[in-house]
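Supplementary Note 2. Why include the ligand at all?

Several targets in our set were suspected to adopt different conformations when bound, so apo predictions alone were not considered sufficient. For every target with a known small-molecule partner we therefore ran a joint prediction. The input for pyridoxal-5'-phosphate is given below.
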Amino acid sequence: MKPATLCIHAGSHPDPSTGAIMTPIYQTSTYVQEAPGVNKGYEYARSQNPTRFALEEAFALLEKGKYGLAFSSGVAATDAVIKLLAPGDEVICGNDMYGGTYRLFTKVFEKFGIKFHYVNMQDIANIESHINANTRLIWLETPTNPLMNITDIRAVSALAKPRKILVTVDNTFASPYLQNPLDLGADIVMHSATKYLSGHSDVIQGALMMNDKELRDQLYFIQKSCGAVPGPMDCFLVLRGIKTLHVRMERHCENGKAIAQWLRNHPKVGKVYWPGFEDHPNHAIAKVQMKDFGGMISFELKDDSMDAARKVLSSTKLFALAESLGGVESLINHPASMTHASIPREERIKNGLSDTLIRLSVGIEDVDDLIEDLEQAIGRE
Ligand SMILES: *Cc1c(COP(=O)(O)O)cnc(C)c1O
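The joint prediction is reproduced in token form.
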């Protein structure tokens, strides 16, 4: 099935009892059994829920994987992957990634004896130099949040496979419509379904997709044992969001491209971070592993004062000043004080995230209106 058809039909089966075309919201905690131990495959909703199962099937199909698992948030999905590990295990991950992932690794899991190496993931030799006998997992995010760096998924997977190191890709920024890491050799794909998969800024949810049955069974065991499952209403909302993923992503990409180019030509704008530029350091890899470049853009002003950045951040009218991304409406965000505030300042600066970086999640409004809004917020003189 082609991607557009898949978005609409993945996981959708008419309800067997009524024929309802939309997956019902099975708002129940338990299921009546005919006799002790005799049931229809559903016992208790932390372990089994038909709405969640429909969504998990859609997750798997969208990422061209065999299995999907839904979690109550993106960080709960990340948490489940790290729980595959044991004290003494080591993880290699990016020095430029979502602030909440960094917080989970440093503040929650380090104290359980798991060691994380935060490295530059654009350099494969650098990743290789951090591998040792204890390395169990490489965690990568591409494109990264918020600097839009790209890691070569195929090269990292080729490095990891012979050493039996798991590769997990946080594919949130690309969405399954633009990039499919399992096809490139990754073992697990993670999504914050809160973002593009849901697409309407109305739900918090996470996803994991994989091909290996044993890995799926371990992660399902963690999902039901630790209990970070999403409710059926939230599963319904994400299933509904997915039906328009392809049309939304195409417009996000189109608008993102127009705005990235407009920003780059603006006399008051400094560096623009967007992997679609031919002179982006990893453009060649992005072109190979992504279908298009998405709707996320970061930029700095030539005037690098906090006042100048603050003025733009508080002057947009259509771009709402808010955390999160991937919804139909455009958002503007200040990573240093908002999404990435949990990373210590010296770490942020060392890794290229300046105090004045501005991040845009370009929505699917009319692009002329979006540009007009940025024009009045940035100003000309
Ligand atoms: C938002 C986000 C997460 C965390 O997901 P939640 O759904 O907020 O828990 C992880 N990775 C990236 C890249 C994100 O943008």
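Residues 73-75, 98, 100-101, 141, 145, 170, 172-173, 192, 194-195, 204, 206 surround pyridoxal-5'-phosphate (CB under 6 Å). The CA atoms of residues 199 and 332 lie 16 Å apart. Comparable summaries for the other entries are listed in the accompanying table.
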